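Encode chain A's predicted structure.
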Amino acid sequence: MKLLVIEDEIRLADILSDWFQKKGFEVTVCHDGLSGYEKAQNENFDVILPDVMLPGLEGFQLVRKLREKKIATPVLFLTARVELPREICRFLPP
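Encoded structure for chain A:
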């Protein structure tokens, strides 16, 4: 299973990458929203894990742009926020 982790905190990205690789995932890591967006457009992934707050292009914007291009890869947002941001609710089914 191919996983794209988009996380700007390098230590956290390394921890996530190591953990998922040990579980058998093929992991690609990007450290900013723009490179993550490019990677998600040009390669096929089974799951995308973007941080909500990223340099260059925030996680919500990144996923919105992917959806506009009809890229429907499942997404699991990463965030250090305590509250559920309103932006996430836009991606949830009614």
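The radius of gyration is 13 Å.
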